[in-house]
């Protein structure tokens, strides 16, 4: 049994994708990156005013800013091309849903250029923090500068569609460096890979946050072994946090995504002090584009008690991101 667990973990180590390695390889051999880059749609710009009023101090902990590309160029090795979703649109979205604090997660399309995040933080009056993309070429001084600029963690996307085969030795070195400056690690997992990643996640030397509820599939039900494994990991590893985001990604029934609500509620009930909420605006690579007002109105369905809403939306993110 131990040998089987080891082999499964080893297979995972050799097969997962990391942005760092994919971009490094492309830099070494740009001629190899000639395939067409798919375009994706932008967000629903007719944001509804939600019925649910979020508490004061709410933090949207998973958002992106895209461009404008003329000022913040997209990486030539990006996996997709979106329309610009710049800071003014970002602010208008949050004004509409009643949120004034946010965490901006640098997307793969901006590569390792984190300026789109740090520039927005600098203009926010202390209301924004960020998650950066980092690589082995960055010095300790570079990371310290990002920390000073409001970055509170780094992200690794382990999705086949977002990269190539990753070098987990590079990943480990970067995580160790992140831990040394007090950052947490944000991980975006391939659907169906929670159980394979458990040994890796438990061994991390710092807090980690699992994106989009572990990319679970609502169609598989609450008894899905992957979801049960996620609940067990979240319950028993104090380093594990989960983002209550991506209900539209998990849904099988479509808008208003009510089939994803029981999964969100289970995760919140399971570890109410280690869950955070976000919109995922502008919703890259979704099958069904949600309206962010509708997403806000899902909150009282999976977090009906005001005390839990306060933890999910305010207290937990303030603690994690050091607002």
Q: Could you walk me through the main structural features you see in this protein, from its secondary elements to its overall organization?
A:
- This protein is α/β, with parallel strands linked by helices and 323 residues long.
- The protein has 13 helices and eight strands.
- It has an eight-stranded parallel sheet with strand order 1-2-3-4-5-6-7-8.
- Helix 1 (2-15) packs across helix 7, helix 7 (194-202) runs parallel beside helix 8 (225-236) and helix 8 runs parallel beside helix 10.
- Residues 1-34 have low confidence and may be disordered.
Provide a short characterization of the protein structure.
The protein is α/β, with parallel strands linked by helices and 323 residues long.
């Amino acid at each position: 049994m131990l040998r089987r667990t080891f082999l499964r973990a080893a297979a995972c180590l050799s097969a997962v994708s990391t942005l760092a390695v994919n971009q490094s390889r492309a830099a070494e051999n740009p001629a190899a990156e000639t395939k067409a880059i798919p375009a994706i749609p932008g967000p629903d710009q007719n944001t509804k005013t939600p019925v649910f009023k979020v508490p004061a101090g709410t933090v949207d902990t998973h958002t992106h800013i895209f461009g404008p590309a003329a000022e913040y160029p997209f990486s030539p090795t990006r996996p997709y091309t979106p329309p610009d979703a710049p800071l003014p649109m970002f602010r208008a979205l949050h004004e509409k849903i009643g949120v004034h604090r946010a965490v901006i997660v640098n997307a793969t399309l901006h590569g390792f250029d984190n300026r789109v995040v740090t520039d927005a933080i600098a203009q926010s009056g202390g209301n924004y923090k960020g998650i950066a993309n980092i690589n082995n070429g960055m010095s300790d001084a570079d990371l310290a500068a990002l920390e000073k600029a409001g970055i509170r963690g780094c992200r690794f996307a382990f999705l086949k569609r977002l990269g190539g085969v990753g070098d987990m030795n590079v990943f480990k070195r970067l995580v160790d460096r992140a831990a040394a400056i007090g950052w947490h690690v944000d991980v975006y997992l391939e659907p169906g890979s929670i159980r394979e990643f458990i040994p890796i996640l438990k061994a991390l030397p710092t807090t980690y946050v699992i994106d989009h509820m572990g990319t679970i599939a609502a169609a598989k039900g609450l008894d899905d072994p992957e979801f049960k494994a996620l609940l067990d990991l979240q319950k028993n590893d104090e380093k594990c946090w989960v983002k209550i985001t991506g209900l539209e990604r998990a849904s099988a029934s479509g808008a208003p995504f009510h089939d994803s609500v029981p999964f969100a509620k289970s995760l919140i009930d399971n570890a109410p002090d280690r869950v955070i909420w976000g919109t995922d605006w502008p919703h890259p690579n979704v099958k069904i584009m949600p309206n962010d007002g509708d997403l806000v109105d899902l909150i009282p369905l999976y977090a009906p008690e005001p005390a839990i809403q306060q933890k999910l939306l305010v207290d937990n993110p303030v603690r994690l991101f050091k607002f």
